[in-house]
Amino acid sequence: MMSRLWLVSVAPAALLAAAPAWAQDATATAGATITDGQDQTTAAGGTESDIVVMGFGQSRQVQTVSAIDMARLTPGTSPLKAVAKLPGVNFQSADAFGAYEWSTRISLRGFNQNQLGFTLDGVPLGDMSYGNVNGLHISRAILSENLAATTVAQGAGALGTASTSNLGGTLQFTSRKPSDTFDLVASGTYGSDDTWRGFARLDSGDLGGGLKGYLSYGYLTTDKWKGYGTQRQHQVNAKLVEDLGARGSITAFVNYSDRRENDYQDLSLDIIRRRGLNDDNISNDYALALQLARVYQNQAALAAYRTANNGATAGFVAPWSGAGLTFPTGFGSVDDAYYDAAGLRRDWLGGVTFDGRLTDQLSIVSTAYYHHNRGQGSWITPYSPTPAGALGGNGETLPIASAAAYGYASPLGFRTTEYGIDRAGNLTRLTLDTGANRFELGGWYESNSFTQARRFYGMSNTASDRSARDFQSNPYFTQWNGKYDTETLQYYLADTLRLGALTLNGGWKGMRVRNQANLLTGSLVNGKIKAEDWFLPQVGAVFDLGSGAELFASYTENMRAFVSSATSGPFATTQAGFNAIRNTLKPETSKTGEGGVRLRRGGLQLSAAGYYIHFANRLLSFSNGSGIQGNPPTLNNAGNVESYGAELAASYRVARPLTLFASYSYNRSTYQDNVVAADGTLLSPTKGKTVVDTPEHMAKGEIVYDDDRFFARVGGDYMTKRYFTYLNDQSVGARLLVDASLGYRLRGVGGVLEGLAIEGSVTNLTDKRYISTIGSNGYTASGDNQTLLAGAPRQWFVTLRRGF
């Protein structure tokens, strides 16, 4: 496998002087947009002071948020939060920055995160879900200060998008180019919960012959806003560009991230009613965690004894004598509060890009990339007690806790899910521009080796000697361990034809994704499965009405390939279960039609769009038990989903310093079929029910003032209720969130102080108490579920920065 990865990564670079960005290494100015059929930036669409660029000239619903707009947010804020104000975008996170990965969710028009496509300078980021098997989250892929633009295509990405999951739209992130002049930019932030965020970037400027680059470093540490624990991240981004003049350019980049974050406790409506939204892990009280685990195991042992003895209890001996059978006051369940949990991710992402002009009409962009990841998800669990003889955190052998303890050394165990990614690929695009016609031919190949294991480590019966934010060693048990290989091959052909006021574009893409599971330990799955479709068409048209107005329309077909994983997709079951579905399971597909109108006149931008989506072979994953138990989900085909809706967006520059932005979206997404077993037995009557986590109405607004000295921003985000069961019997209510910031820049002072700015910002200004993320532990057909996360309360931050 490694020889294949090396060949895929290096050979195209050697042949083509190759390269990161199918989309190009984005020059992306503030007004850059992505044109249909290719991923090239254009000047059409906006100016540097625009909050949002509405995608003029494109046949799809597209908006772009620029670096200038992202810089108005607190440093370190996820670019996903920056695009949350766009129509059709449902973004949730339990932290103020929108970067806490366990909680981060984004969906478009009823499609959840793992049904969208994500790229950075064209390099695929996979489906960006937690425990990503084929990529990494944007918050780890690049520092937010190094982004030039984020473009959202709500309905369908361009044909050349390197993604096998973009059923319902794409987010394309574009990094900044190195500056032509020497510069040092930096910022420092301090705020609520002892938050410290620092950033520095050194631009070399032109070193001669068109060679320039930058090196940047970012650091974030913050205490959790409730409970105990820390979220911390180190990041380094480096980029080097060689400008070859008329021949093109060569770009190389390396990005590194080390992120370690203590988790918040997942909640249910019942837990919230009994313990409130501030319920959290009890990481400060190991003795209490031991007591809860002992009581639970006594209860479980008694239930098993009764079952084995026809309900009798005589002769029963509890494994933890003295602990009793009743939880401490205030606790109704062992799931009310765990001791600790954490997520660890360490990533290297690098690539080389050749962007060249072969002739006056023919050009090529080729990217070679490599990504290495090591990850661990930690949960200290009362469901798996440590056996005597296991090794503790200091390498010592743990003795039996007591004579009656059933051979246990501790009622707690340290459960991990461990990840490793080694993937490499190449993306190459040829473009022939003959004037009226622009032809494109592109291809993408990726080889991905993903390893995943579930292991258990020993815990002490007296004091905690393992940290959830450390990579662990000396497991006492490996429940399962597998190697999952994925080979992706994709091509596309596109043509854009300009006929005066009318522009037509069309083409198709094809893909084949082969998945193979090689189980090394345990009782999950060995086997192969494949998703293949060599003709997925896309057509569109734009008609210029004159006076800044245009009509647009498009139609797109897409397919989502299967994922190779022990915890999601077709391999997350037993061997018998996989054998039963491997020959009949179909990949999810979508057909999207959309159309609308755009208007640009003076400082006004308007966009209105309507859409209809037919989503076939929707695969529903039913969670089983609490997430900490690690039970495999049940995968069922729910048939079709129908979605339709409308989106409105308006941006108005009242005067040079003052800009208003507003968006509204309506979405109706419903399951069209019931979930049935292979023999026709009804499993879940989902027909006519609303798709989970799809608010019917969303409205966002923003006021921005910036006269080059004083600057201020206030934004509001409203959405209606969201269901978190497939049968719609459980939901979370509507909520309105408000953020605000105020700052001042030094101007006219000269020297290093020129442009120095101080800014204060407040998130959740009204201190709204609400549920943010739903589905953190998946979804069930009906009933309450421990799958909710509370949103952060009001938090404040102060930033001093220079050079932005």
UniProtKB/TrEMBL annotation:
Compartments (UniProt record): Cell outer membrane
Domain TonB-dependent receptor plug: 60-166
One Pfam family matching this protein: Plug
Record key words, sorted: Cell outer membrane, Ion transport, Iron, Iron transport, Membrane, Receptor, Signal, TonB box, Transmembrane, Transmembrane beta strand, Transport
Membrane topology: Multi-pass membrane protein
Keyword set includes Transport: yes
InterPro entries, alphabetized: Beta-barrel_TonB, Beta-barrel_TonB_sf, Plug_dom, Plug_dom_sf, TonB-dep_rcpt-like
Coiled-coil segments: none
Signal peptide positions (record): 1-23
TonB-dependent receptor-like beta-barrel domain: residues covered: 305-765
Family designation: Belongs to the TonB-dependent receptor family.
Name this protein carries in UniProt: TonB-dependent receptor
Naturally occurring in which organism (per UniProt): Sphingomonas kyungheensis
